[in-house]
Amino acid sequence: MPIHSLLLAGLLAAQSPDSTAIVHGIDRADLDTTCAACQDFYQFATGGWRARHPIPAAYPRWGSFDLLQEQNRETVRVVLEEAARDAMASGTRSAPASAARSAANKVGTFYATCMDSTAAESAGLSPLQPELARIAAVATPADFRREAGRLQKIRMPIAFAVYSQQDAKNSAEEILIVAQGGLGLPDRDYYVKTDSTSVAIRTAYVAHLGRVLMMAGDDSATAIGGATRVMALEMSLARIARARTERRDPYAVYHRMPLADAARLAPHLEWAEWLRDAGAPTVTSLNVADPDFFRSLDTLLVSVPLADWRTYLRSHLLAFAEPWLDSRWVAEDFRMESILTGTKEMLPRWKRCVRVSDNSMGEALGEAYVARTFSPAAKARALAMVRNMEAVLHDDLATLAWMSPATRKQAITKLDAFMNKIGYPDKWRDYSRLEVSRGPFIDNVIAANEFDQNRRLAKIGRPVDRTEWTMSPPTVNAYYSPGFNEVVFPAGILQPPFFDPEAPDAVNYGGIGAGIGHEMTHGFDDQGRKFDEKGNLRDWWTADDATGFQQRAQGIVDQFNGYTVGDSLHVNGKLTQGENIADLGGLKVAYAALERSLEHKTRASDAGFTPEQQFFLSWARIWATSTRAEFARQLVLTDPHAPGKWRVDGPLSNMPEFADAFHCQSGDPMVRPAEKRVAIW
Ligand SMILES: [Zn+2]
Question: What is the predicted pLDDT for the residue at 15?
């Protein structure tokens, strides 16, 4: 089941030691006062910040999130270097006095082997030779199935994705799911779009695959032929895949069926054997998220020559491994990344190693990270804020004019059942079954991926563990999980500019407050509203209320469809509707919470701004972002969030509270005409 975060997770993030003096609250230097607030609030509120923070060469995007992520990365580096020193000094076997100690040792070793560029250089491609030899020996469809399963076991999406998830209709049960996948480019749209940029990216991708195959030993004619056929195969997979917008409906990706029915859908898949090879436990039923995809994949398994499937396996294994091999491979990997993101230079090695350590073993370094950054007092304050916001949303639901009493009652039941997770897990992940070696590093990447896939698949058939976290503690992000009906805020985001105990209340409500409201609203967006208080996909809406919601949501879709990025890209209103609904709802709830808190306090202005103005300035400030054109394109196609500018100007132009705070008049660009203004929650 997807989680719904504040921004797209897993992107390359932040850099550059930024030595600006710390301002607690609104900093006038962030503004561009040559632009009127009612004209383009994003420019007014963030023009100064963006002018002072150009995108560093090694990043595809630069914004508040990235800058904070960069600071966290420095902290995590200190944690990892300490762990690495301990681990390398103690030897891997001697010192694991406790589980936590042993996990710290493992992540220390993981990081140290990542930093060992000498070992990577001397190893070259040799660590992959056994896998490459197995692939080269694929001579029958059964051989192919077995090797594809092996690679899926290390989380490579070969032909399709295999994982586990809560059963959407019974959240107490963890089940096996298979879904469309198998592509090398970031989205199926990269294959099906016909504009000149898409064509150029595909050409560059084929050239990349050709070089990869050549570096692995093919002569140039064989490599070019192989790359072309891999592209043709991926093109076929893309053509049978559904668009992201179609997959937003949780019912559209729920097709639980007996294994025998899946076998009828795609008889050449040999499901039981394939899933066993992919590491899944024996199951009698599963969710085939995209039945039409599997029906067509069945044809491809027969019609595409085995030699092409073999080259596909080989090129995907190489592309998966190349960031962690010797410098020739790393350079080739970056060459392709640069085409997709516009990034001009590679991140320094330690940053790449911090990132992969956090992604692979985030909870092993989380305890030490939290000890350095996140106090019990900060946790208590953040929790108090979440409770405040829940109380406001409760009152909002109780008085919402367009909703009938029957639906309202259910909505409140759902809100009352929300769980909150703040800072870090109560129970840390158990890494005892992960073997981390002294290198070469690619072996550890594979081991960590296999450990993670095993961990996920081992959940099938066991009681759902509601203490689990999806993001690591240093992550600058947050999420709502519909299956758990919970909002989760890692320690990484509970810092300035999102959350600053020294800043005025209004600034915190416009920052983390609106972020909390955003996550809570996900429980009631186009997807979240379809789940009940237990996290089950169940329709608890009256027909009239469902229509009322859809009409309002359509207003948001239409509004954002009207926005552009750069010269020619259009925001996808349908893809981004859930996030845009959450932004608008989150702002409304946070604003009401601010007003409530101001009833008992003196109204202090800060940097010449009223508390209400500070609130909106703070919201804009967290979305201050510059993005390279190449990466903006990738985000428009794949990211369910609108670009920063529209996350500011979009919701605020729907809010009379904003117009009042900045004395905007009807007719101003920041004031949408009354008949077009959207209010949902
Ligand atoms: Zn979100």
Answer: 33
Question: Considering just the CA atoms, what is the radius of gyration of the chain in Å?
Answer: 25
Q: 288 by DSSP, 3-state: which?
A: strand
Question: What is the per-residue DSSP string for 109-149?
Answer: HHHHHHH-HHHHHHHTTGGGHHHHHHHHT--SHHHHHHHHH
Cα of 387 vs centre of ligand 1, distance in Å, is 19
Ligand 1 centroid, distance to 122 Cα (angstroms)? 44
Q: For residue 346, give the amino acid letter.
A: M
For residue 581, with 0-12 CB atoms within 10 Å meaning exposed, 13-18 middle and 19 or more buried, which class applies? buried
Instruction: Return all residues near 429 (Cβ < 8 A) that are at least 6 apart.
Output: 103, 363, 364, 455
* Ion ligand 1, residues whose Cβ is below 5 A away: 4, 579, 582
Tell me, in angstroms, the distance from the centre of ligand 1 to residue 646's CA: 14
**pLDDT tens for residues 24-71?**
899 999 999 999 999 999 999 999 999 999 999 999 999 999 999 999
* CA of 577 relative to ligand 1 center, distance in Å: 10
Contact 650, 559 (CB under 8 A): yes
Answer for the pair 556, 678: CB distance below 8 angstroms, yes or no: yes
Asked if 587 contacts 517 with a C-beta cutoff of 8 angstroms, the reply is yes
Instruction: Please name every residue paired with 480 in a beta bridge, in sequence order, or none if there are none.
Output: 4, 487
Query: What spacing in Å lies between the alpha carbon of 61 and ligand 1's midpoint?
Result: 19
3-state secondary structure of 199: helix
Give 610's DSSP letter.
Answer: -
Nearest CA to 327 among 111, 59, 117? Answer: 117
Alpha carbon 391 to its chain's center: 28
Scored b (16 or more CB within 10 A) or e, 158-174 reads: bbbbbbbbbbbbbbeeb
Task: Report how far apart the first and last C-alpha atoms of the chain are (Å, whole number).
Answer: 24
* Distance from residue 482's CA to the centre of ligand 1 (Å): 12
Distance 513 CA to ligand 1 centre (A): 13
**How many angstroms separate the alpha carbon of residue 580 from the centre of ligand 1?**
8
What are the backbone angles phi and psi of residue 174, rounded to the nearest 5°? -100, 125
**178 contacts 294 by C-beta, under 8 angstroms:** yes
- HSE-CB at 408 with a 13 A cutoff on CA atoms is 14
Res 19 pLDDT > 50: no
- For residues 479 and 519, what is the distance between their CA atoms, to the nearest angstrom? 6
- Summarised one tens digit per residue, pLDDT across range 624-679 is 999 999 999 999 999 999 999 999 999 999 999 999 999 999 999 999 999 999 99
User: What's the CA-to-centroid distance between 466 and ligand 1, angstroms?
Assistant: 20
180/160 Cα distance (integer angstroms): 5
